[in-house]
Amino acid sequence: MSTKGSKKKELGSRASSVLLGVSAKESTVSSHGSTLNEKWKFPIWPEWNEADINAEKWDAGKAGKEKEKSGKSPISHLFEDPEGKIQLPASLKVHSWKRPHEFLTNKIPVVVKNETSFDLFSANEHIFCSELMRWIISEIYAVCRIYNETALSNETSALFWKPWEHIYALCKATKGHMPLYNSYGKYVVKLYWMGCWRKIIVDDTMPFNAEDNLLLPATTCQIELWPMLLSKAIIKLANTSINETGKRELEEFTVLHTLTGWIPEVIPLQRGYLDKVWGFLKDIVPEFKLPKEKTPELDILQSDTKPKDTTVSELKHEVSSLNKQSDKPEKADRVGKGL
Q1: Is there a domain that residue 301 lies in?
Q2: Full domain range(s) for residue 118
Q3: Is the pTM of this model over 0.90?
Q4: CA distances from residue 316 to 308, 310, 321 in whole angstroms, order as listed
Q5: Residues 111 and 226: beta-carbon distance below 8 Å
Q6: What three-state secondary structure class fits 97?
Q7: Distance of alpha carbon 157 from alpha carbon 149, whole angstroms
Q8: Domain tally, the chain
Q9: Which residues have CB under 8 Å from 10's CB, separation 6+?
């Protein structure tokens, strides 16, 4: 019994020493600046489990139960992300945060409006200054093109990969599910991180700048929310990649990996990688070759544009006709003098 008790005490002392070590480390980091400390803090999001999604509470029922237990009213009737507001890149200056019902006046928000196509370029020029936003937009298009190459060529075909299917709200985790607008403001996003699919919870608060422009990707359909919700979850994962050099907003983080689980090869566009970049382009870009035979259309164009050759006989004829015209006035003068 004494040995067991001593072991428990030893384990307890080890655990307390570990906790003390962590707190000491955090205090050391915080002494250098709270901003650096916040950057290094991020949760380990739970692994994806469809049973959890099917049992998810999407409304304010949980807040009502807390009110009954505590006897106090909840602070807000809308869901707020327990992880707090997302941290946007330094190139985007946040002025305010708004809910959909605050910036979509007299309109009913939806998660998905157009199920066949989307435009993430026209309405987002003001956020192209951010490398992270450019990558989010371009990688969504890249994955969509890879998966739906045959479907895009035929407008009647259904899309095989839909970016909004990474979002869950008021729906079950089934194939081809459709997330719905949740007035409570709670959404779950499925993304790949640290070797498996993860469950990432976001709310529907959106960042705006001083000019009242939305600082997240959006489609040309103002009432669609899926690009903003998906981007908020992606930004959470991007913030785990600490920017130490200051050259890129992403460091080694790739949006493609979070959407698919694929491991892309990143080749920097720098002087030391020129040979590798050139070899990569030669492998994937088809080599241009001049056509061996001229097409009939090209021959016709060349014949129309080519100046005609003038023969010697034609020149002699033109010269003789000019001489005859020049002789006529002289003959007229002689006739006048004779008169």
Answers
A1: no
A2: 41-284
A3: no
A4: 17, 11, 9
A5: yes
A6: strand
A7: 11
A8: 1
A9: none
Residue 150 lies in a domain: yes
- pLDDT per residue as tens digits for the range 264-311: 887 777 888 888 888 888 888 888 888 877 666 655 655 555 555 555
Q: CA torsion sign, 121 to 192 to 44 to 265?
A: negative
In a domain, 298, yes or no: no
Rounded Cα distance, 137 and 260, in Å: 15
Look up residue 102 and give its two tokens.
Answer: 């605050």
The type of residue at 66 is: E
Question: Cα–Cα distance between 118 and 95 in angstroms, integer?
Answer: 28
What's the rounded Cα separation, in Å, for the pair 253 and 269?
A: 16
d(CA 152, CA 116) in angstroms, rounded, equals 9
Q: Checking DSSP bridges between strand 196-203 and strand 206-208, what pairing results, if any?
A: unpaired
**Residue 10 falls inside a structural domain:** no
Number of alpha carbons in the 13 Å side-chain half-sphere of residue 89: 26
Burial class (CB in 10 A: 0-12, 13-18, 19+), 147: middle
Within 10 Å of residue 83's Cβ, how many Cβ atoms?
Answer: 15
CA atoms of 187 and 56, how far apart (whole Å): 10
CB atoms within 10 A of CB 177: 16
Please give the residue that has the higher pLDDT: either 15 or 217. Answer: 217
**Segment among 28-32, 96-100, 281-285, 303-307 with least mean pLDDT:** 28-32
pLDDT digits (tens, 9 = 90+) for 39-90: 556 678 999 999 999 999 888 655 444 444 444 444 458 999 999 999 999 8
What do you get for the CA distance between the two ends of the chain, in Å?
A: 159
Long-range contacts of 7-15 (CB under 8 A, 24+ apart): none
- Phi first, then psi: what are they for 247, rounded to 5°? -80, -35
Distance between CA atoms of residues 87 and 84, nearest Å: 9
